[in-house]
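User: What would this chain look like folded?
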Amino acid sequence: MNGRSRVADTGHAGAVTATAARLARTRRRGDRYGDGVLYGLTAAASFIGVLVVAAIIWRVADGAWPAIKVFHLGFIWHNEWNPVTSRFGARDLIIGTVITSLGAMLLAAPLSIAIGLFLSELAPASVRGPVGTLIEMLAAVPSVVVGLWGIYVLAPFDAQHVQPLLSSFLGWIPIFSHGQDKIESTVFTAMIVLTIMTIPITSSICRELFLGVPTELEEGAIGLGATRWEMVKTVVVPTVRGGIVAAVILGLGRALGEAIAVRQVIGNFSPLKTSIFEPGDTLASRIANQYQGAPSNLAVASLIYLALILLVITFITNVAAQRVVKRFEFQRTGGD
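Assistant: Here's the prediction, encoded as structure tokens.
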């Protein structure tokens, strides 16, 4: 038995040596430097990415520095925005940004997950392709076009039908009051527009995640007697829940930074009202709305200060998303 093992090992070693010899004969001089070139190119690309991020942070911080020197951190919780008296504050704009973005994700996340499950698990092949393509095409629609559609179609329908209906049932809650006023440009309209703009990104990622679940796991659950719903609930979603969280956070980042479409439908009004059925404003829409016509250098610096705050919020969101994904991965694998 040991003799046979030695013969097999010898034969294997001979095959490896012959393969290496053939590979050496086919290599050119340039192939020997391939590993070094590949390493250099990938390292340079990564370094360029880091440099771009650092340059953005430095330039935004430098532009905001005059406002930082005048208002300090009090800029974050002060509310007044008056170019005439040169008094600026970002509190309501930060609150408006958070409310519109989180509200959009509360609507977009379940819809995106449902779309991803339908296209990956339930839809017939004849439907899967066209529907998936049409949903992905939403991501290619320019923001200004979505905003115009929001002005001429969504906002009137929302003001005449959706807001009064919601207010009639939930008007006792302050954020759902004043729906009977039928205002077209509102925080709620901005939420719906952001929902439409984030669904293509989030649903596409969710669909790819669900398609990546091993077929053996799904067939095993069905073989054990699980229904399709039980299979989705106990196998498909738990397997990729970390990726789902990352997809939702990516959509949140898209919602946080949207400016043009939100500017067109939110009403550009501050201070922020209690109800989402009234006009409001966000960091991005205020920058887009007032930067070109800013009356003073301090006003420009204050708008750039808003951009710096938005940048910090985005970075915090991404870091939190990475930690959440790692936590889910740890729970799934049981690793250290």
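Residues 174 and 335 are 46 Å apart (CA to CA). If you want, I can go into more detail on any region.
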